[in-house]
Write a structure and sequence with these properties.
The chain is of the alpha+beta class and 120 residues long. The protein has one domain: HIT family, subunit A. It contains 3 helices and 5 strands. A 5-stranded antiparallel beta sheet has the order 1-2-3-5-4. The relative contact order is 0.21. The mean pLDDT is 96. The protein binds guanosine-5'-monophosphate. The site of guanosine-5'-monophosphate has 13 residues, from strand 2.
Length: 120
């Protein structure tokens, strides 16, 4: 069994979070340290540490995560202007919490995708 993180406690409401959506597969809540006017994390209810740990059986869950992100973007009024979905994976991807999460960010122009460094 993969190790639980603080996100498991959010799912079962053991610690508070601003949950905007929850069903049998996924939970969505506002990021505690938002980087954009809308910054919501969509996570599977089952502990999947990274996107690299997805199994074939998780396909409905990952599909639900993206569909929920799309619906929340529409509800937040940011869909027409556009938004960004990000999944960070492990150290080089900048992942801090090892419970898979999809960042939904929008509400302002988000700029270039990555900070450029010389020689990439
Ligand atoms: P990562 O860097 O792993 O892709 O993103 C982790 C995100 O989780 C960060 O944006 C961070 O602000 C958010 N986060 C970490 N701990 C908590 C928490 O306890 N509650 C909420 N709502 N967000 C958290």
């Amino acid at each position: 069994m993969p190790e639980e993180t603080i996100f498991s406690k959010i799912i079962c409401k053991e610690i508070p979070a601003d949950i905007v959506y929850q069903d049998e597969l996924v939970t969505a809540f506002r990021d505690i340290n938002p980087q954009a006017p809308t910054h919501v994390l969509i996570i599977p209810n089952r502990v999947i540490p990274t996107v690299d740990d997805l199994e074939e059986a998780d396909e409905p869950t990952i599909g639900r995560m993206v569909r929920v992100a799309m619906t929340i973007a529409r509800d937040e009024g940011i869909a027409d202007d556009g938004y960004r979905l990000i999944v960070n994976c492990r150290e080089h991807g900048g992942q801090e919490v090892y419970h898979l999460h999809l960042h939904l960010m929008g509400g302002r122009p988000l700029g270039p995708m990555l900070l450029r460094k010389d020689g990439l």
